[in-house]
Amino acid sequence: MLQSLFKKVFGSRNERLVKQYLQKVKAINALEPVMEKLSDFDLAGKTAEFKARLEQGESLDKLLPEAFAVVREASRRVLGMRHFDVQMVGGMVLHDGKIAEMRTGEGKTLMATLPAYLNALTGKGVHVVTVNDYLASRDAEWMGRLYGFLGLSTGVNLSQMPHDAKQAAYAADITYGTNNEYGFDYLRDNMVYQMSEKVQRPLAYGIIDEVDSILIDEARTPLIISGQSEENISLYQQINEVPPRLIRQKDEESEGDYSVDEKTRQVLLSESGHEKVEAILTEMGLLPPGGSLYDAANIMLMHHVYAALRAHALFFRDQHYVVQPGPGG
After folding, report:
1. What is the value of pTM for the model shown?
2. How far apart are CA 88 and CA 69, in angstroms?
């Protein structure tokens, strides 16, 4: 009862935050006539002024109204697009590390220029994460005109780029790229022998487009860099003989040794399937008589069995992978 009354009087937390943001929007709008009177040279010069103020101890939050007003005016002159008040609110939400929901066509790309510019003033770099290379290239070229006018550099990080080009892209004030490429670059940077070989700088600030897809849906797929295994490959060859001796279930109710979930791309052994696999591995000499796949010592065997099952049931040659001849033919 009291909580409901409090909400009616003071509004929800979200409503209170929006009210705070709208107060800042009023301050930004009040600066618009001042910015309109500046010459292109003076407007672009605001970037150097903001950087100097940051070095003197002023915070980004203190600079926000002026910085947003500068970006709005620069966008109007360079791109012919003026940020709406709701885009200003969205920019503040992103600057605060929160999620802003906007429908397609409401100007997410333009809105992102506000917090991207503000945080790029620190010189530590800003990463804008998109869902594919096309959007990364398009947005970097499109919004790069705005950043360039204001004296900031823009880079685009694409797959298959040369090492030097990647380092240059990450050295830019604002870098556009896909979540997978950022992730793989991070993994590759942790495999280098010398610090000079790294492409990424220390991470500072990022903006993620389609955040639900990238941080929830795609997060279920791990980023893995594989290489030549140092293990004895004979175990893989032996385990590879197990799946053909098992029977796949037609559905959950039917008899069989394992089931396949095409949607989640998972394979699950049935109880009878476990027993059958244990018997086969015992026959091969990989499992001691009476041994169980559930024993701690046999965890790796279980991993190999499931890997072999997935390879046979879910991955098909020339569809999910290709086999190319080596140097010897």
Report:
1. 0.69
2. 9
